[in-house]
Amino acid sequence: MPGTVLVTGAAGYVGSHCLVDLLKADYQVVAVDNFTNAVVDVTGETDYPESILRVQKLTGKKCAFHRVDLLDKEGLRKVMTSHPDIDCVLHCAALKAVGESFKEVLSYYGNNITGAVNLLEVMEEFKVFRLVFSSSATVYGVPEYLPLDENHRTGNCTNPYGTTKDTVERLMTDLAASNPAWAITLLRYFNPAGAHPSGDIGDNPLGIPNNLLPYIAQVGVGRRDKVFVYGSDYKTPDGTGCRDYLHVMDLSDGHVKALDRILEAGRSGVEVINLGTGHPASVLEVIQAFSKASGVEIPYEVVGRRKGDVDSLYASCDKAEKLLGWRAERNLSEMCTDMWNWQQKNPQGFSA
User: Fold this and answer.
1) How confident is the prediction for the chain on average, in pLDDT?
2) Does the annotation count 13 as an active-site position?
3) Among 22, 193, 314, 318, which one has the highest count of C-beta atoms within 10 angstroms of its own C-beta?
């Protein structure tokens, strides 16, 4: 039977989509978020983030919500005390913009690493030893071979964000080695994209989007003039960078399956699992796919490369299929269609 899961970063893009599937799978959910990238109930009737209110409407189910920053250890203790039935933690909370991480190094290290330490210490205090961590393919750095499997070396990261994820992975691995009570799954996922097919929740970046598809979507609805393509001289078929784009609902399904597995009796130690499609798409291919899905021509301009970008990244997903029975089911066209549906219904995101 599903248990009770604490979800950090629950109001964010990945966290909110995971809530939908967790509630539908009959998990009891305790949601926490610090509102760094959240819009509060636009009706003004509650202090819940709009994304979580919409999740509850979509599912017809309620979740407990607490506004807590992971840097506030006492706040975390109060959450655990209020919900003594918590069985497992899904840790999605993090600062996650690659470009911003070069400028806000202390913020990224403080939030992503110190926040994780606080969470783990409080979990240990309350004897909650099962954790699924939303990590990232950025831990692989510059690929030595493709597709990237879980045995590829990590640590030679090309940006501070990736380094924080790699550091937290190492911390969790050392912690699990020190105490066999711990069972931890590190989900290294590639590039989340798309939105819930209802169009009621989706990616809602505050300010200028750092990821490609939400930026393209904002160009499509007229919020931005054009897409900037950073570099056209990569060693790829069309010269633009290639990435493994993964529908956020497939990603959410992977998280639920990982939780199901880690709650099985006898689990111990650390498992590392990639979540991707194994099918890379270039920047120009994504722009073309979005134009086709939306019926809107997306203007773009090729400019210089960004610091920290690599030619191509895509996953080997064999381990996810073997251990979780999981494989991505949705393609790039579906990601673009669902992203466009979300953006058309919510041209100003959750703010309107």
Assistant:
1) 94
2) no
3) 193
